[in-house]
Structure formats: structure tokens, C-alpha cells
Amino acid sequence: MSVRExxxxxxxxxxxxxxxNHNGYFLRWDSSGxxxxxxxxxxxxxxxxxxxxxxxxxxxxxxxxGDHCLGIPGIIQRMSRDQxxxxxxxxxxxxxxxxxxxxxxxxxxxxxxxxVGHPLHGAEPVVFTEDTFTVTAxxxxxxxxxxxxxxxxxxxxxxxxxxxxxxxxSGPAVGRLRSQGVVLNDAGERVExxxxxxxxxxxxxxxxxxxxxxxxxxxxxxxxxxxxVESTYLEREAELAATYRHMTARQAGQVAAEAGVGxxxxxxxxxxxxxxxxxxxxxxxxEVFSGDIVLARDLExxxxxxxxxx
Length: 310
What we know:
The chain is α/β, with parallel strands linked by helices.
């Protein structure tokens, strides 16, 4: 049975705390595993989460501030040590390629890693195209070049058993109807897919990290079933957020509301906040967003919600 879930490996911002590691997010998507923004300590967090280097099939780096990338050397060296054989494309802003090279070769090790750099150019590049999903990127508004990511499953069809029975389509013919769009039933009658199925929108996951509120963040998150979004500050620090080009929880909620998101995960929490502030993040985002809100906690596993209709 396929699994689609997000594993929070770290949820702090620039400085890790006793309860929040530097950033790190692992998206298990069926047989694929996409590692987003591996900050310092990600390799150890993966051990705690029961994840291995072999689980990583893709890597996406939003930008090259340390809390989003200092775990890259450990991950790559672990892949070499564990003899990961499958290729692991790693996306990152092209303007930071010098940092990628430094991190990729940070220490002396037997470099057998299958990781291949994939520098991103332009405003909205296509990053990866696989059989079951496509990852695109969008340029955000931070202090250095930063990309957010959007993983989208192709739209498909939901078969209607009652209609299939009424039209005399069963067994292998159902699969042919789904793939070919038309079959002949046992009576020799032509049956079209639209008679026995309704459109099913594909699953969408979005990852919007360090940025000021901007239209591109909304585009990346459009109709996402699950959005991971930075909410570094509470509203009382809105001026700081603007200065450093980050978002408050309320601003993150506004992005999710404008984008029509199903569930949002608030993360990238400043070290200034204590456990007693957690409820305020949820409350401030909830002032403008009526969907489900989760405040990220390290090592938490969050199932990708079911596809929404429409």
C-alpha cells in the first residue's frame, strides 16, 4: 500500500533549540522520498525518524542560508557510506552553485554518492518530472535567491462501480477503459470513460520557505492539499519579519487562505519563542485561514490529506 506523509526532521529557524532542530523535511510519496532543506543535524534526525539514506530519491534546497543546507555534507557522505545506488537529483538556486560545491565536498571522504546537482534558472522552472508527479519551483522574495517548490500529481479519474456494472464493464476492461478512454462491453457496445467515471484532481503538496508575502507563494500553494510554510514570527514581530523578509503566522495563514489550501503546516519558528507561545501561532494563522492548521513538531509524521474534490 502506498504511503504519502511528511516527516518533520527539524522546525526551527536560524538557531536550533532544545526542542527544535534546524530545518529538515522528508516527504514520502509512494516509492519516492524527497528531502527538503536539510539543515544541520538532519542525518541524526533521520535516524530518530527511522529513515535511511536509501529512502532519499530527490533533494530540494530552497536557498543557501545555513539553517536550510548545513546538513547536506552529512547526507551526501552517508549516501556514499551506505552505497546508495539510485541517482539522487538535487535542486537548488543556480546563483548558489558555489555553496553547493563547497557543501558537496566539505570534507575528505570516499565520494561514491549518487547525488547530482540540478541548478535552477528562471522564475518558474520545472524541477523533476516522474511518472506519478511533477515538481516545479517558483522564485520567492527573500534576502538571497530562494525558490519554493510544488509537487503535483496528474489529474485522473475516479471509477464509479455502479455505472460500470450498469454498462457491463468488468475485470480487465475496467483498466483498459481508464487508460484508453473507451472499450467495448460484453454486448459489443461502445462505452466511454466519461460514462463510468468522474474527474479526480491530483494530489498537490507545496513547500514555501523563507520569504516575504508575495504572489508567487500563493501560486505555488494554489489548491494544495498540504502546504508547508514558514511562519518565523508572531504578529507582534511583524516589523522584524518585514526587515528580514520572513512571514508571521498570520501572513502565512493569509497565503494559505488566498491559495485555497486544505491543510497548512506552520514551521521555521524563531528561537525567541517558548512552548507557551505555540497556541498563539495557531490562533494568529486561524484568524485568516479556516482550514486545518498544524504547528510542526520535530519527528512528527503528518499524513498527506485525502484529495479534495473539485
